[in-house]
Amino acid sequence: MTRARIREGDARAFEQLYDEFARSVYGYALRLTGDWSTAEDVMSLTFLEAWRLRERVDHDGGSLRPWLLGIATNVARNTRRASRRYHDALARLPPGDDASDFADELVERMDDKERVTALRRAYGSLRRPEQEVIALVAGSGLSYAEAAEALGTSVGTVKSRLSRARKKLKRAAGPERTWPQEYEPITREA
Amino acid sequence: MNANERANLARALPPGRELPERREQQIKDFVMAEIHRSAEPARPRLRLPRPMLVLPVAAAAMALVIAFGLGLGGAPAYAITLLDDGTIHVTLNEIRDADGLEADLRDLGVNAVVDYVPDGQRCSPQPRSTDLLPQEEARLGVWPPPQNPAGDGFTIDPAVVGPGQTAVIELSISDDERIASIWARVSNGPVAACELVVDPDHHLGPAPQS
């Protein structure tokens, strides 16, 4: 029903879509970009792109969150190109509040600061597709099938990217009791 | 993947930050305004006198165009249209004559204060009333418009403005003199006059709480 209304250009349905998923899109964008201001731009551009591409929504399917996060993935990959399309519109977006980067504060609260720092550094050095799959599955809580839908790829590819990424992170983080010794198999989801 | 594995992986991600509620609403207003804008036909640079532009287009869709704000040169700054469902649509042709618009709305039984806020400025003081009703209680701005009026404008629901109450409407105006966003609330008490002050953040209404 919602899918059909959005396909037809029902602005009220689209508003509801925003209400439901804005925070999810923002959280995902923040994990990909690491910068709250850029994440706000990615979020805005994602919904503008979603409206532009609304006719591509399939009639059938479940939550539209994977579709939105897929758009967010593309926007974050090339924010500059997306910004060009909406250059005039973005000029009308009021700037957000200034906010200090509290990443250090959060890290300080953790008892294993060095290890988390190493993990994040390792995450930053991952290939972009590997970062995306971790942000979708671990950060946004998508299933493998939903992550595959968001990335426009297969479940097998999602699993293999995730497996590679986890091995790299494991190497970077070193042994630690809370880190699983064995990451495979990942078989309980489609 | 079990919850423990997800949690461990998530620790590698950059830390999150809750998007402040008001900022979320601000971006929503922006997105919906852009969507509305994208649905409009391209506007000619030369603005025609409003009666010629509005009436033929809108006659079939709207109940009644009842007022035009006429400027010194005779060109209408705005048109007020009563829609079938009782809401009021205001079409802005030029960003001027807010006083005339307020007077015309008052004639319709809506006590309103309307302010145009250019980019890079805001109304001061904020909040302009000590008793603003939350949007959930009195949804003054109607989005999307119940009908599809032509031109740049906004729609309000006069039914949510009771006796003794005031509709407070702040309109963000872009450099090309179009409505970028709207902030509309109902006040139970008196409303302070809007003094425009410089504000790079360009907030409408009270500043967001981060």
UniProtKB/TrEMBL annotation, chain B:
Organism: Nonomuraea corallina
Residue spans crossing the bilayer: 53-79
Keywords attached to this entry: Membrane, Transmembrane, Transmembrane helix
Protein name (Swiss-Prot/TrEMBL): DUF348 domain-containing protein
Domain of life: Bacteria
Lineage of origin: Bacteria, Bacillati, Actinomycetota, Actinomycetes, Streptosporangiales
Keyword Membrane (UniProt): yes
